[in-house]
Amino acid sequence: MKMYLEKCMLLDEQRSLIVRGIQEGKKEYQSIKALLPSFTTNTYDPRLQYDAVNTHVEKMILNSPHTQMKVFKKKAGFHPYIVIHDSVRNIFILVSKLPKNKYVYNPSGYRGDFASSNFDRLLDMGAPKEELLGDTIYQPSLFQGSDNHPFGIIVSYDRDSDIIYEGALRPDQVDWIYKEDITDAIILNTRDVIPLNNYRASDIEPRLKTPKEDNDIVVKLKNPPST
Fold first, then answer.
1. What does the pLDDT look like over 27-76, one tens digit per residue?
2. Position 143 pLDDT exceeds 80
3. Which of 95, 103, 79 is nearest to 174 (CA)?
């Protein structure tokens, strides 16, 4: 089972970029908070940290185009959030604050999108059904190939402590398929990786050969038949 999960988990550099983004977002939040007066109702407080974290995570991803990850801005009702897409492996990543002293999130519609096809993806890859599902009653989708079933990962951080988790929810959202502490998953040398230019096809000017004049074209005749 572990070998199938490892193929869907974050790569070391992806994990490092997201963890660094969360950490730097929380640092900026603390710096801004220190400059603000104490209000009677601090409704801005949790939202400010959330916005700072999302901003820095997005910045980390956009500054590392060689990872081939993209960032999309979404909304669930009035709740804005960002989604990171690993376009090579078809993996979607949500960065989210885990409520204090909670092991798992309460089920929700938008988080359900990150869990709905996780079992299907692993089963299509060949994961043993008995080991994955246990006693869970689950009706797998028609086989479409693992590339056509996106896998959803949630990176959870705590508001007050430094702890950060990476995990994937079961489709029913009542528990995790896996959950790991990635707080210290920083690769220092990712700062030295040279980003590749992320060109779109429409940005690349086609380079055609210079056309030859008629008198420059050499016509090769067949050798005369031997007698």
1. 999 999 999 998 898 888 889 999 999 999 999 999 999 999 999 999 99
2. no
3. 103
For the whole prediction, is pTM greater than 0.85?
no
Beta-carbon neighbour count of residue 182 at 10 Å? 22
Task: Give the alpha-carbon dihedral of 146, 11, 80, 120, to 10 degrees.
Answer: 20
- Distance CA(214)–CA(153), nearest Å, equals 61
Q: Mean pLDDT across the stretch 199-218? A: 41
- List Cβ neighbours of 142 (8 Å cut-off, separation of 6 or more): none
The Cα–Cα gap between 16 and 168 comes to: 18
Round to whole Å and give the CA distance between 129 and 217: 66
Q: What is the distance of C-alpha 49 from the center of its chain?
A: 20
Residue with tokens 């929810």: 169
Please report where in the chains the tokens 């989210």 appear, as a residue: 96
* C-beta of residue 119 within 8 angstroms of C-beta of residue 134: no
